[in-house]
Amino acid sequence: MARLLLCDDEAALRAVLKRYAIFEGHEVTEAGDGLEAVSLCREKSFDIIIMDIMMPELDGFSAVKEIRKINQTPVIMLSARGEEYDKVLGFELGIDDYVVKPFSSKEIMLRVNAILRRSSISVAAKLNDKNHIIYEKEGLRVDLSAYKVFIDDHLAEMAPKEYDLLFFLLRNKNIAVPREHILSEVWGYDYYGDDRTLDTHMKLLRKSLGPYAGFITTLRGLGYRFDG
Q1: Which of 95, 178, 199, 202 would bridge 75 by S-S if both were Cys, CB 3.0 to 4.6 A apart?
Q2: Tens place of pLDDT for every residue, the chain, 228 residues?
Q3: How many domains does the chain have?
Q4: Do the beta carbons of residue 166 and residue 137 sit within 8 Å?
Q5: What's phi and psi for 167, nearest 5 deg?
Q6: Range of the domain at 160
Q7: d(CA 203, CA 225)
Q8: Positive or negative, the Cα torsion across 35, 36, 39, 41?
Q9: 168/83 same-domain check
């Protein structure tokens, strides 16, 4: 269960998203404008924020700017406009996703759950003195914050997709992850390519992991699992 802050001046939209979020098992707090959202973030912590741009009192951009002075909670920004300027400004402020209206509640929940998985800290991971998220098992050491992987104290050279694939598996360690889900989360929501792409990158990742390639288990007919 995640603590979700839903900020939009449209009560009907909040009601629909809230219903879906609760169905997914999340706890939802509502805010009708940016000022209320900032105030709530000063009072309590949230795991993710859904923030509309166009609101009275304080717009979404200004609200996110104020919230970023307090914490780094992941933010999904909603907008009726799809202009590149708005998207760029949002990402410069540190948002994690940008969704243009109209959208389906199911799509929003998929994006919420994807961000929550990416931002979650594995049970076996820990924070070091630099607040980096570190995963260690035997001679494998992964710094998820710095995008560094060490094999028996030697820095491994990996392709960007290998990092993404490894980090995704780590955040879902000990869980059987279907191939389609891996492709959707690592390659994107709208990936329709050949799923042999996954097999190719998995072979490359295992080669990079060397003696620790066995931590990744192939589940025939299903997908993969990182045994951590």
Answers
A1: 95
A2: 788 999 999 999 999 999 988 888 889 999 999 999 999 999 988 889 999 999 988 999 999 999 988 888 889 999 887 677 788 888 888 888 888 888 888 888 888 888 887 665 443 455 555 667 788 899 999 988 788 999 999 999 999 889 989 988 988 888 888 888 888 888 875 555 566 888 899 999 999 999 999 999 999 888 999 997
A3: 2
A4: no
A5: -65, -35
A6: 125-226
A7: 14
A8: negative
A9: no
At 154 the three-state DSSP class reads: strand
CA–CA gap between residue 147 and residue 14 (Å, rounded): 36
Same domain for 16 and 110, yes or no, is yes
Q: How far apart are CA 58 and CA 12, in angstroms?
A: 20
Find residue 136's DSSP bridge partners. 141
Q: For the chain, how far is it from start to end, CA to CA, in angstroms?
A: 22
Examine the domain organization and report whether 11 and 109 are in the same domain.
yes
Which pTM does this prediction carry? 0.55
